[in-house]
Write a structure and sequence with these properties.
The chain is an alpha+beta fold and 157 residues long. The chain is built from three helices and ten strands. The strands form two sheets. Strands 5-9-10-8-7-6 form a six-stranded mixed beta sheet. The protein has a four-stranded antiparallel beta sheet with strand order 1-2-3-4, with helices on one face. A hairpin with a 3-residue loop joins strand 7 and strand 8. Helix 1 packs antiparallel against helix 2.
């Protein structure tokens, strides 16, 4: 079962604004080589990080849960899953090393109640929590979180 990740309006707008500003800054500094190449490097680093880390889809099968970006997929073995449930991150979440809306929400977060977790979602309203047997936690999100949660639960029976 596979489900696409849609970004929130905030995330889409933030990503577009930052890319437009960086692009405009590159164009404005094209005659100033050091500044131009610095801005271009930042632009390219952000673009590559989006391609490898930005949330694109969640896929679950009988063996794995796959956190898919455009150029990479991170697998969580189904046998390592202890529990899965629908979950909505609070607005008071702390970003430890994460993107809080730019190209989605992904990285390491800390929240009162559940502690540290790896987040990978586009909209906070479309999330679910996966707890692993080793104590790790993942907050994942996709367009149909209830269907993915039910599918994962059916694989754990």
């Amino acid at each position: 079962m596979k489900s696409k990740i849609s970004y929130s309006r905030f995330s889409t707008l933030l990503t577009a604004i930052i890319y437009i500003i960086l692009f405009a800054a590159c164009v404005a500094t094209v005659k100033e080589a050091p500044m131009f190449f610095t801005l271009l490097a930042i632009y390219l680093i952000l673009l590559v990080s989006m391609l490898f880390g930005g949330p694109a889809y969640i896929k679950a099968d009988e063996d794995n849960i796959v956190l898919g970006s455009l150029l990479r997929g991170k697998k969580i073995r189904m046998s390592d899953v202890e529990n899965v449930e629908l979950f909505k991150p609070s607005s008071g979440v702390l970003r430890v090393c994460a993107s809080g809306g730019f190209m989605g929400f992904w990285g390491i977060f800390r929240e009162t109640g559940i502690g540290k977790y790896y987040g990978f979602y586009g909209k906070p309203s479309d999330c679910f929590l996966v707890r692993l047997k080793d104590g790790s936690k993942y907050v994942l999100g996709c367009n149909h979180p209830d269907k993915i949660v039910n599918y994962i639960k059916s694989q754990k029976i």
